[in-house]
Inverse folding.
């Protein structure tokens, strides 16, 4: 409070200070996104070496990949409670500490059991980060730059995946899988130290009755006291709406519809098969005829770069063209990409080894990644935060985020089994069929929420409008 008054009047200095604070907050929360991406991306390059080192069966390889998702699902589901009790800042700190322990633990694992336990810990950290960091950012940002901050967080996830691919490539020359996993502890430590310097979110402070402290934080972020006052009174107003997630879910059919829609959206995002491409990229390229590790790794880095660049397309188009058209184009692109990739792999399996088949297989992998990154990747996260009514938003987002990780785990845990049972071509065609189904579901169930207020979406939902119409003005 005192600081607030002291800085009043020195407006230029104050604007600069607020700006610096925002950059620092974006950096710290962005680091959480980066770690999320690093942990998703690192395993594809490390897995072949881990498999050789521990002589893993297909089943154990699936477990090495999917135990992280199990941890993330547990992390996401318990974070609602942890971040309510401890606050966003302390939760992020706990997440950062787990990131450090998990990455050092997996890098030094003397046996498969230790590796799996470390992967669950890492996953728990990722689950915390994927829930708390966007929530923290949305609570810290002023209205005008909320969207930008959350998009930037998404961008950091893809940069993390790319960075993991690059570092995997570098360490692959000596087969250093322990270094691939261990190097992640460096950004994890950086996250831990930067979180120390973060203020707690004013919304959380106010919800705990610490109004003076909440105001102090708001003052440090705002260019004027008036803005800070206005923000605080909005926070106080919104606190009048008590979070009643589970109770409302049981009592109100419309709340249930929103929660189920969020879970469906996240399940659709994962069943596109995008993560299969990311986790098992080296194997896919091997099937496509890229024989040596170096060739496979370089191709994988190209995948990461495509993912990052295509996310930029989404950031530019999602508010102009709208969510639904982008989703339909994205699912159609993934369906085409996985179908033709499957066809190429089928031909390779049948003994045709022409260079053009390998080239087409790589191009189709890139088409699949581009289609996902410009559509379902960001759009699903955006929609999930838009469709939940205010009173049950935390509960709704926790349910959809947990669904994301559970389905992610199912995909990781079944991919090699599917390949062994049906062959790699048919496995990709299963994803083709699912993506075609998602185009139909988008027509039937998904609302267009471009340019409409969250209050209007909520009103439409509560009035019992069809789900696909809750975004109609
Ligand atoms: C998804 C992740 C995926 C990432 C790829 C995110 O939106 O939730 O599962 O790995 O995009 O960029």
């Amino acid at each position: 409070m005192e600081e607030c008054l002291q800085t009043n009047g020195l407006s230029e200095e104050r604007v600069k200070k607020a700006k610096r604070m925002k950059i620092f907050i974006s950096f710290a929360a962005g680091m959480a996104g980066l770690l999320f991406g690093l942990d998703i991306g690192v395993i594809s390059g490390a897995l072949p070496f881990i498999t050789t080192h521990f002589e893993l069966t297909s089943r154990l390889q699936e477990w090495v990949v999917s135990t992280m998702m199990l941890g993330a699902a547990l992390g996401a589901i318990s974070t609602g409670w942890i971040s309510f009790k401890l606050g966003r800042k302390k939760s992020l700190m706990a997440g950062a500490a787990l990131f450090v322990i998990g990455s050092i633990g997996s890098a030094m694992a003397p046996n498969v059991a230790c590796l799996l336990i470390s992967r669950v810990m890492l996953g728990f950290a990722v689950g915390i980060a994927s829930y708390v960091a966007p929530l923290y950012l949305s609570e810290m940002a002023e209205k005008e730059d909320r969207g930008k901050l959350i998009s930037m967080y998404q961008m950091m996830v893809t940069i993390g995946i790319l960075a993991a691919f690059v570092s995997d490539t570098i360490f692959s020359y000596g087969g250093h899988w322990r270094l691939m996993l261990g190097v992640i502890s460096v950004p994890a430590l950086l996250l831990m130290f930067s979180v120390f310097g973060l203020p707690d979110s004013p919304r959380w402070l106010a919800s705990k009755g610490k109004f003076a402290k909440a105001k102090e934080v708001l003052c440090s972020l705002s260019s004027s006291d008036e803005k800070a006052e206005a923000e605080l009174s909005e926070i106080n107003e919104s606190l009048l709406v008590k979070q009643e997630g589970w109770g409302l879910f049981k009592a109100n059919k419309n709340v249930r519809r929103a929660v189920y829609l969020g879970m469906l959206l996240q399940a659709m995002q994962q069943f596109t098969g995008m993560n299969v491409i990311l986790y098992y990229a080296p194997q896919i390229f091997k099937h496509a005829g890229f024989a040596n590790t170096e060739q496979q790794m370089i191709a994988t880095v190209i995948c990461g770069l495509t993912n990052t660049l295509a996310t930029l397309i989404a950031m530019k188009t999602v508010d102009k063209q709208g969510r639904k058209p982008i989703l339909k184009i994205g699912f159609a692109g993934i369906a085409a990409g996985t179908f033709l990739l499957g066809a190429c792999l089928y031909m390779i399996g049948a003994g045709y080894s022409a260079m053009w088949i390998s080239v087409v297989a790589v191009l189709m992998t890139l088409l699949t990644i581009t289609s996902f990154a410009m559509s379902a990747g960001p759009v699903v996260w955006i929609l999930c935060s838009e469709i939940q009514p205010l009173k049950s938003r935390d509960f709704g987002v926790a349910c959809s985020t947990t669904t994301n990780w559970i389905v992610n785990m199912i995909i990781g845990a079944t991919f090699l089994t599917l390949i062994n049972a049906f062959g790699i071509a048919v496995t990709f065609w299963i994803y083709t069929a699912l993506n075609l189904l998602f185009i139909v579901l988008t027509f039937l169930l998904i609302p267009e929420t471009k340019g409409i207020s969250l209050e209007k979406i909520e009103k439409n939902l509560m009035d019992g409008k069809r789900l696909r119409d809750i975004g109609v003005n």
Remarks:
- The CA atoms of residues 228 and 288 lie 57 Å apart.
